[in-house]
Amino acid sequence: MLQILNRIKMKRIILLTLAISSIGLTKAQNSKAVFETHEIVWYGLDFTKAKFVGQFDQGMGAMPATGHDMRTKWIPQWNALIAKEKTNFPLNNAFDVDNIAYDMGPVNTINSKIDASACMVFNPGTIDRKEIDGMVAKYTAGEKKDGIACVFIVENFDKGAENASIYVTFFDIASKKVLLCQKEEGKPLGVGMRNYWAGSVKSIIKQIQKDWRSWKG
Questions:
Q1: 17 alpha-carbon distance from chain centroid
Q2: Can you tell me the distance from the alpha carbon of 139 to that of 38, in angstroms, rounded to the nearest whole number?
Q3: Per residue in 32-70, is it b (16+ CB within 10 Å) or e — as a string?
Q4: Is the dihedral of CA 13, 14, 17, 19 positive or negative?
Q5: 127 and 146 Cβ atoms separated by less than 8 Å
């Protein structure tokens, strides 16, 4: 009887080990496409669940910024800046690819619908990793119909902590399947609202470039 129980126990351990190995292999296969592509499509900064923590102003100590200001002014400016100043935000170097294609329409659309009354808070928010798949699945079709895309899903711009937390997320455009997702943090740096928080994105891009080889595994 004891031998039978031991055999059952051993079979369960083997099956569990195989299941874990299979999950790990699937994740490795998914992320492999990210490191093999020669082009990444940049979707921009997704602020749909982002929280602006603390008292933000219009820059240089000017009047306070509202949620409406964030949605209509600053969020579009941050996304536009990254696309315009490519040498200051060298995504191609960070992702080690020959080309970055900019297709920010889908994210610009959802950013324009952010609830302005809920994005300004005094305590940091949290985005669970499990939510990321659903967020990506909601992106409408852009100019690019296939390939590998990257979106930075912003969790917090925390003024008091002087920190930005962002999910660096790669996905397959055709299927909207998330291939790789890594949470990163960056310190803001610069003069004025736009440049200060864009500095945190620049910091994260530099960190990605530094860690890219380790991401490959």
A1: 31
A2: 23
A3: eebbebeebbbbbbbbbbbbbbbebeebeeeeebbbebb
A4: negative
A5: no
Would you say 162 and 188 are in contact if contact means Cβ atoms under 8 Å apart? yes
Pairing of strands 51-53, 148-158: parallel
Beta pairing class for 178-186 and 163-172: antiparallel
pLDDT tens, 47-92? 999 999 999 987 666 789 999 999 999 999 999 999 999 999 999 9
pTM of the model: 0.86
Q: Among candidates 6, 43, 1, 8, which has minimal Cα distance to 139?
A: 43
Distances (CA, A) of 205 to 15, 22, 162: 40, 31, 17
116-138 pLDDT, tens per residue?
Answer: 999 999 999 999 999 999 999 99
What's the rounded Cα separation, in Å, for the pair 157 and 163? 6
Residues 6 or more apart in contact with residue 64 via CB below 8 angstroms:
55, 56, 57, 58
Q: CA separation (Å) from 126 to 4, 14, 42?
A: 47, 36, 24
Measured distance CA(4)–CA(33) in Å, rounded:
44
